[in-house]
Structure formats: C-alpha cells, structure tokens
Design a protein that fits this description.
With about 180 residues, the protein is α+β, with helices and mostly antiparallel strands. The protein has two domains: about 1-70; about 70-180, no CATH class. It is about 60% helix and about 10% strand. Strands 1, 2, 3 and 4 form a four-stranded antiparallel beta sheet that branches. A hairpin with a 7-residue loop joins strand 3 and strand 4. The two termini are about 40 Å apart.
Length: about 180
C-alpha cells in the first residue's frame, strides 16, 4: 500500500523577475544575478529569449528566487547597487560618442554656413569671385575635418572613460562577492 504514495515535495514560494540585457552582457547578468539568489526560471519556455526585433540586440532573462531566502533584504540592497552601477556604465558608454558627435556636427554646420556665403558671393550682381574663393576654403575644410575630429575626440573620451567603467566593474565584482558570501 505504501508503494503507491507519491514522494512528498515541499512547496516553495518564488518571486519572479524579468531582466532585459544586451547580447554582450547576458552571460554576465546571469552570473551576477545568481550571486543575489536568482536562478533562470526553467518553467518558462526559453528562460532566455531574444527581443525578436531586428537590429535590437536585447535578451530577456526570466529569473526566480525563493521568497524566504535568508538575508533577502541585504541581497536586494546589493542587487539594487548592482543595477545602479550597470545604469552608470551604460550612461558612460553612451557619453563616449555624444560630445564627439556634437563637435563634428557643429564644425560641419559652420562649413555649410561658409559654403552658403560662398554661393551668395558668386551669385551676387556683380559676382565677387575673390570672396567666393575666400569663403569656399573654410567651407571645404569644415566638410572634410569633422570625421577626423570625431575620431580624435572619441579616442580621447575613451581614454578618459575606460578607467571609470573599469572602476564600476570592480564595484560590481565586490557586490557579487558580498552576495555570494550571504548565500553560502
């Protein structure tokens, strides 16, 4: 009669979370969230799935964690610190190109203004050929110079921002170590 009994399984209440990550960060996100007690939700089809939108390299990661996990408040605090660090890293990455783009566009726009002046000088009655040539030189320089300016400024900004990003990653690794110690 005892052979027909099902093995007793304790109920575990889970909390769930869905994380959106870039393809390049998905593996790191899985590793880091494990340090805070999360695991990939195996009940959902494809615990990880891509966004499905062309040219949008995002991955949706579905996670679950025992609601009665020990040190839950401290793990949640560490997790929030991690998420804030990731937002700061994303902001720093975006800022690498923004100033360079702005300066290159401004120089290109100034070149266009000189070209407009050159065109107005040549179409005036009587035409001012000397003024046209004088205005055309900075106009062409304003059109040729922006790609080189952009590359130089991006490299300069990369050299400035890379140590800041590395410091944030070091902070993330410290948070992971603290989280792991709380779990095990």
């Amino acid at each position: 009669m005892e052979e027909n009994k099902k093995p007793h399984k304790n109920f575990v209440a889970y909390e769930y979370k869905e994380v959106i990550a870039s393809n390049s960060n998905a593996s790191m996100m899985l590793d880091v969230y494990e340090c805070f007690g999360w695991e990939v939700d195996g009940n959902m089809p494809g615990g990880m799935e891509t966004s499905g939108i062309p040219h949008v390299p995002k991955v949706y990661i579905r996670l679950k964690r025992d609601r009665r996990i020990v040190n839950k408040m401290e793990l949640t605090r560490l997790q929030r610190n991690f998420e804030a660090c990731m937002k700061e890293i994303e902001t720093l990455e975006r800022n690498k190109n923004s100033m360079a783009t702005m300066y290159a566009l401004i120089v290109g726009l100034i070149g266009t203004v000189f070209m407009a002046g050159s065109v107005f000088a040549v179409t005036a009655q009587p035409p001012h050929i000397g003024l046209c040539i004088l205005l055309a030189i900075p106009a062409f320089l304003g059109w040729l110079f922006p790609p080189f300016l952009y590359a130089k400024l991006v490299e300069k900004e990369r050299l400035r921002i890379t140590p800041l990003i590395e410091a944030k990653y070091d902070e993330i690794y410290e948070l992971c170590e603290k989280g792991s110690k709380l779990l095990y």
